[in-house]
Amino acid sequence: MAKVDNIVVTGKSGAGKQPRIDVLVDRYGLEQLSTGNIFRSYLGAFKKLDSGLAPEKFWDEASGWFVDDSAISAELEPFCEKAGVPVDDAVLGLKAARFVDAGLFVPDRITNALFEAAFRAKGGRGLVLDGYPRTAAQAEFLLQLTQDMGTKLDLVLLVDNEDDLIVQRTVGRRICPKCGRVYHVEYKPPKDGKYCHDCGVEVIQRSDDTEEKIRTRLREFAEKTAPAIELLRKAGIPYVEVPGNLPVFTDEAVRESVLGKVEPILG
Ligand code: AMP
Fold it and tell me: Which one of 60, 94, 124 terminates a domain?
């Protein structure tokens, strides 16, 4: 068996990617790299400032982009000093917040730069890519990056699910703010209904897990992510689909459903 470099796990936000990722991490000894978690960590840096400054303040409608970084830094700096947050992280967090909090995709130029830094830091292999690529431009960028680094994408796994079911499930989703572990109030409750099993930290509801924002994300997926998947398939990356909703949801059922499709390809 050729060694597995990277697997892309894709699907609508809230389709049920995490349990499938857990299976792949365990089976192939991979590490999860999630752009959503990367953004949430920068968002956390910005929100920790409690500055009362809205990202909109730094948005220039005429150019369709943010004002100069130096102008944003100047206003954030006093808050950063007080909170002990690096200014660059807070600036990135402010920019990401404008999109993430609205359920919109973060623009490619920010996403690709952050992804590349994280991907290179991990050596470009041994990863389950979670939530990236999500646009055709990101897919092209990733194909080029792996080629430049002499690594590869071995598989794209799509977790399929219906919109209405996703809305129902996502409003019950909770997440550990420390390690990113995902829970559900009904299907996978945190300890004592409140705490992360791994960290003991109180879980939170994501700011973008409201019905309106979930529906926006579903539209983003249909318009932007479906073409990205198509592009990877056309580039010859093997592709499989697994259902995000199983009649009986146990660890074993998830494992079988994933490996039944993946092992014939990756061994
Ligand atoms: P997720 O946890 O994967 O649902 O991501 C949460 C949010 O982060 C998304 O709704 C987007 O706002 C942003 N995000 C994560 N990954 C990407 C990406 N590859 N491209 C653009 N935005 C992203």
Answer: 124
**CB-based contact 18:251 (threshold 8 Å):** no
Residues 10, 13, 19, 20: what is their CA dihedral angle, to the nearest 10 degrees? -10
Number of domains in the chain: 2
Does any ligand 1 atom lie closer than 6 A to the CB of residue 141?
no
**One pLDDT digit (tens) per residue for the chain, 267 residues:** 458 999 999 999 889 999 999 999 999 999 999 999 999 999 999 999 999 999 999 999 999 999 999 999 999 999 999 999 999 999 999 999 999 988 889 999 999 999 999 999 999 999 999 999 999 999 999 999 999 999 999 999 999 999 999 998 889 999 999 998 989 998 889 999 999 999 999 999 988 888 998 999 999 999 999 999 999 999 999 999 999 999 888 999 999 999 999 999 998
Residue 266 lies in a domain: no
Q: Is the CB of 100 under 6 A from ligand 1?
A: yes
Which residue lies with its CA nearest to atom 19 of ligand 1? Answer: 132
| From 39, 111, 174, 229, mutation site for ligand 1 pocket: most ligand atoms within 8 A of C-beta | 39
CB of residue 228 inside a 6 A radius of ligand 1: no
239 CA distance to ligand 1 centroid (A)? 21
Cβ count within 10 A of residue 168: 13
Is residue 81 in some structural domain?
Answer: yes
* pTM score of the predicted model: 0.87
Q: Which domain holds residue 230?
A: 1-30+126-172+209-261
Distance CA(14)–CA(173), nearest Å, equals 9
Provide the pairing of β-strand 173-175 with 155-160: unpaired
141 lies in the same domain as 246: yes
